[in-house]
């Protein structure tokens, strides 16, 4: 965590030591082919895409993060394994233990915390007109015919 880097997609050793145990173990390789991209490199690729906003398929191979599809699949697998939720809890505990949480910037709303009670039950809506409304599809006047024959 420490000092901000000029390249925020590079994961520090300290941060990686917190993230690595939270990631799921990779399954057995079903097909021979290229070796698996290490998780830390894939994470750097994910952060690069998220930081720069480029499309996954345009992730430069020269950076050594693996292909954009590899990083995207790894992100999906880690989402499914709730790795980000677990990391959030770990980071909050770490900050709380060092008394470094700034609650003055915290926001709680209904999209994050469910309301404990419901408000008063609303009465059914009342009509504002007296009687029935006029039909907009039919007329009470005699039917007009465009035909000359009756």
UniProtKB/TrEMBL annotation:
Positions with biased composition (Low complexity): 125-144
Domain of life: Bacteria
InterPro entries to which the protein is assigned, alphabetical: IS402-like_dom, Transposase_6_like
Residue span(s) of domain Insertion element IS402-like: 11-88
Region Disordered, annotated ranges: 114-150
Stored Pfam families: DUF4096
Entry protein name: Transposase
């Amino acid at each position: 965590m420490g000092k901000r880097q000029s390249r925020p997609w590079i994961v520090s050793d300290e941060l990686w030591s917190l993230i690595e145990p939270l990631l799921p173990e990779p399954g057995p390789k079903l097909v021979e082919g290229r070796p698996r991209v290490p998780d830390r490199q894939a994470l750097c690729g994910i952060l690069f895409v998220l930081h720069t906003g480029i499309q996954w398929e345009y992730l430069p191979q020269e950076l050594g993060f693996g292909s954009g599809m590899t990083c995207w699949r790894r992100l999906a697998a880690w989402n499914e394994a709730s790795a980000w939720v677990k990391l959030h809890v770990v980071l909050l505990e770490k900050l709380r233990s060092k008394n470094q949480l700034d609650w003055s910037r915290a926001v709680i709303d209904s999209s994050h915390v469910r309301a404990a009670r419901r408000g008063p039950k609303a009465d059914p809506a009342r009509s504002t007109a007296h009687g029935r409304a006029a039909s907009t599809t039919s007329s009470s006047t005699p039917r007009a015919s465009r035909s000359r024959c009756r």
